[in-house]
Amino acid sequence: MPTLFDKLGGSAAVDLAVDKFYERVLQDERINHFFANTDMVRQRAHQKAFLTYAFGGTDKYDGRHMRAAHNELVEKQGLKGEHFDAVAENLIATLKDMGVSEELMAEVAAVAAAPQHKKDVLNQ
Q: N or C: which end of the chain has fewer CB within 10 A?
């Protein structure tokens, strides 16, 4: 059975989606300030590796845990639920712009915006 990663189009599709996603995020005034001092080349690479793992493209992920990766944003910059939701909204809008089917967008949303991921990102 194909993974979500495969159904989305593999590495090329994830790479394109992440690049388009961050173009959108960096224009979103609700959340772009969280990336003001971020090395976006490194951030894009990290996100591509994470989504490849999260969507079943690999069973190995060497990145930091969500809580550790977002702790400073929560504690020092006020990252909250509405910011998490804005990120998820931008991801879905990106996929829609890319012509991804509603069915696949629902699968992506179920993975990316899973309640446990939100709790981890927000250190709850």
A: N
